[in-house]
Design goal:
The protein contains ten helices and 18 strands. The chain has two domains: about 30-175, Rossmann fold (3-Layer(aba) Sandwich); about 190-370, Vaccinia Virus protein VP39 (Rossmann fold). The protein has a seven-stranded mixed beta sheet, sandwiched between helices. The protein has a seven-stranded mixed beta sheet with strand order 12-11-10-13-16-18-17. Strands 8-9 form a two-stranded antiparallel sheet. It has helices at about 30-40, 55-60, 75-85, 120-130, 150-160, 215-220, 240-250, 260-275, 315-325, 345-350; strands at about 45-50, 65-70, 95, 110-115, 135-145, 165-170, 170-175, 190-195, 200-205, 230-235, 255-260, 285, 295-300, 305-310, 310, 330-340, 355-360, 365-370. The relative contact order is 0.09. By secondary structure, the protein is an alpha/beta fold. Helix 1 packs parallel to helix 2 (about 55-60). The structure holds S-adenosylmethionine. S-adenosylmethionine binds next to helix 7 and strand 11.
Length: about 375
C-alpha cells in the first residue's frame, strides 16, 4: 500500500483511480520542492498550479489562498477531487482549467510540473506567456531523470527568460517570470500521416502518437472488422485513428471516441469533422475509460496504454479490459492490440469466455474477446 501521510500534511493524498494494492505515491520530491520554493518566494496568496498529478499542489495552495489548477488529464482532475473530498477541502467552482482557458488576472505565482511531452510543455509555456501579467513568477520542477535537456532554451524562447535552480532529492527547479505577451507562437498541432489511408490526422500537444502513427495502431488498422453496424467505442482513442478508420470502412457504425486526455478527445473530434463533415454521427467522451457511458457497444477497439505518467503500469490496461467487459452488448467483441511481451491472454481470459489471437507479427498480437 502506498504511503498516504505526506510531507503535505495535514493532507492525506492518494492516487486515483483508488486501488487496494497501490504502490505509487500521490506526490514526489519535485512536487515538494516546487511547493516549498513557491512558499519561500511567495508574492501573494493566489496560485496557479499546472500539471498537478493528484492534487498535492492545488490542495496545499488552497489552504493559503485562492488557487486554480490547469491540466489536460481527467484522471488528475478526479484524483484532486477525491483527495479534496477525503480532506474536507472545498474546491472552488471553475477552479480546474482545461486547456486553454484563461487564468484569472489575479494570479500571483505559477507552480508548474514539467509535463512528460515536450509539445505540451511548449504549448503551456506559450499559453502562460500570453495569459499572465508581465512579471508573474513561474516556478517549474521535475525529477532529474524526466527533465528535457531543452527546458531552459524553451523557457527562453517562450518566456524570454528562465534559469535552472539547485537540485534536491533528484528533483530540480527552474524559475522564470511571465513576459506579459507572446514572444513565440505556440506550435501548430502535429500532423500524423496515415499513409495507407492518405490521411494527415491532427494531434494536439502531448496527444499519444503525435510524432508518427504508433506501430501497434498500424497493425490494428490492417485487422479492423468490416460489416460493423451499431455502436463502437474507440477506447483510449488518442487522435482517433482506430475509430476513424473503422467508421470510414463501416458507414453504419457509430463510434464513441473515449480518452482521459481532453486534448486527445479534441483531436479526435477535429479529425472526425475533417473526414466526415460537421454533421457526422460520432460521439466523444472525456472520462476514465467508459465510466459514465450508458450504452452497450457492439465493438470496442483498444490499443491500451502501459504507462501511467512516467511509470510502467499494466494495471491501466487491465482496468480498461474490465470497462470493456461491462460495456459490451450481448454478442459484442473487444479487439485489443498489444505488444507480445505484455501477456494479456490470462487477464483477458478471466473476463471473457472466448479469447483468440486473430493476428500476430514479430512485435504485436491482436486479441478478439467475446
Ligand atoms: C496507446 S494510446 C492509443 C491511442 C490510439 N488509440 C492509437 O492507437 O494511436 C492509449 C490512450 O489511452 C488513453 N488513456 C490512458 N488511460 C486512460 C483511461 N483511464 N481512460 C481513457 N483513456 C485512457 C491515453 O490518453 C492514450 O491516448
Amino acid at each position: 500500500m502506498a504511503e498516504t501521510l505526506s510531507p503535505f500534511a495535514p493532507l492525506t493524498l492518494r492516487r486515483w483511480p483508488r486501488r487496494r494494492d497501490e504502490t505509487l505515491r500521490a506526490w514526489d520530491a519535485a512536487d515538494l520542492y516546487l511547493w516549498r520554493s513557491g512558499q519561500q518566494e511567495q508574492r501573494g496568496p493566489a496560485t496557479l498550479v499546472v500539471n498537478d498529478q493528484c492534487g498535492a499542489l492545488w490542495l496545499s495552495a488552497l489552504a493559503s489562498g485562492p488557487a486554480w489548477s490547469a491540466g489536460d488529464s481527467w484522471l488528475a482532475w478526479c484524483a484532486a477531487e477525491a483527495n479534496a473530498r477525503d480532506n474536507g477541502v472545498e474546491l472552488p467552482e471553475g477552479g480546474w482549467l482545461w486547456p486553454w482557458r484563461q487564468p484569472p488576472a489575479s494570479v500571483d505565482q505559477v507552480l508548474m510540473r514539467v509535463p512528460k511531452e515536450n509539445a505540451l510543455l511548449e504549448a503551456q509555456l506559450a499559453w502562460l506567456a500570453t495569459s499572465l501579467p508581465a512579471g508573474t513568477p513561474i516556478w517549474l520542477a521535475g525529477m532529474d531523470k524526466h527533465l528535457p535537456p531543452q527546458l531552459v532554451p524553451l523557457m527562453q524562447r517562450y518566456l524570454g527568460n528562465g534559469q535552472a535552480g539547485l537540485g534536491w532529492k533528484k528533483a530540480r527547479r527552474f524559475q522564470a517570470v511571465a513576459p506579459g505577451g507572446a514572444l513565440a507562437r505556440a506550435p501548430e498541432p502535429a500532423r500524423v500521416a496515415v499513409s495507407e489511408r492518405g490521411w494527415r490526422l491532427q494531434a494536439g500537444p502531448g496527444v499519444f502518437g503525435s510524432q508518427h502513427l504508433d506501430i501497434g495502431a498500424r497493425f490494428m488498422l490492417e485487422h479492423l472488422p468490416t460489416g460493423v453496424a451499431g455502436d463502437v467505442a474507440d477506447l483510449g482513442c488518442g487522435n482517433g485513428v482506430l475509430g476513424l478508420a473503422l467508421a470510414a470502412d463501416n458507414p453504419a457504425a457509430r463510434v464513441t471516441f473515449c480518452d482521459e486526455s481532453a486534448l486527445a478527445v479534441e483531436s479526435a473530434r477535429a479529425n472526425a469533422e475533417a473526414l466526415f463533415g460537421p454533421s457526422h454521427r460520432h460521439r466523444f467522451h472525456l472520462g476514465n475509460g467508459l465510466d459514465g457511458r450508458q450504452e452497450r457497444f457492439d465493438l470496442i477497439l483498444l490499443n491500451p496504454p502501459f504507462h501511467r505518467g512516467h511509470a510502467v503500469d499494466e494495471q491501466v490496461a487491465r482496468t480498461l479490459f474490465r470497462h470493456a467487459r461491462r460495456h459490451l452488448a450481448a454478442g459484442g467483441e473487444l479487439r485489443v492490440v498489444a505488444n507480445r511481451h505484455l501477456r494479456y491472454q490470462r487477464p483477458l481470459a478471466k473476463l471473457f469466455e472466448q479469447v483468440e489471437v486473430i493476428a500476430s507479427n514479430s512485435k504485436f498480437l491482436i486479441y478478439r474477446c467475446r
